[in-house]
Amino acid sequence: MPHDVSWDEYNAHQSGRRPRPSLDMALDAVGPSTSPDASGVPTEDRVAVDLGCGEGVEVTALLEQGWTVHAVDGEPAVLRRLAERTPADHAGRLHIHHLAYAEIDALPEADLIHSSYALPYCPPEHFDRVWATVRAALRPGAVLAVQVFGPHDTSFGDPEMTFHTEAQARALIAGLDVVSWREEDADGMAYTGPKHWHVFHVVARRPTEG
Ligand SMILES: C[S@@+](CC[C@H](N)C(=O)[O-])C[C@H]1O[C@@H](n2cnc3c(N)ncnc32)[C@H](O)[C@@H]1O
Fold first, then answer.
1. Which CATH number goes with the domain that contains 66?
2. 7-25 pLDDT, tens per residue?
3. Is residue 32 one of the residues assigned to a domain?
4. Site residues for ligand 1, CB cut-off 6 Å
5. pTM of the predicted structure, to 2 decimals
């Protein structure tokens, strides 16, 4: 993200889009609730974390499907908008955490951790600690869906961002079962205009034992 565009501006632009495919894939991997109510909404307390949730499109989708959701982001305005637009009957399941990556040293235990296009913006000096908290928060059987950026990405070299080679990205999920692994290495569009995307789209599951 060029530094002349604020996260508030970027995130506001996300309002109204569909939830990202990474969330659909993660939800497919989690599977249906074992105890839906008459309308199909799960009644058990399934917990999700959306790390770097931005405008909260995925947070809202999870709330609508009955999840308890911890929405984490460093940008106060998006979290305010998320709280304001969340209907009262969902608000009790929404937990908002205004945290910069520099401040994250624990996350709630979760059945699903989603983090779309957000972890690359964690400064390198904080990444290992943040990643350790993500891994520690995965309950047995929990699903993780993240994107990390590779060295061919246009933004490579930004000192405030963290990049991973394929080997490094695979090492991040060591010990997890790979549900889906896709490398994108192609020209495309970003909010700020054309760019080259080098992204590892990863969905993985913590084994139920071990
Ligand atoms: C590209 S947006 C992705 C937002 C959302 N997950 C999505 O898919 O649209 C990156 C998010 O990371 C957050 N972010 C960037 N730097 C951060 C930092 N140092 N600490 C915490 N959050 C940060 C921004 O506020 C923004 O919401």
1. 3.40.50.150
2. 989 888 888 899 999 999 9
3. no
4. 7, 11, 14, 20, 52-54, 73-75, 78, 100-101, 116-118, 121
5. 0.95
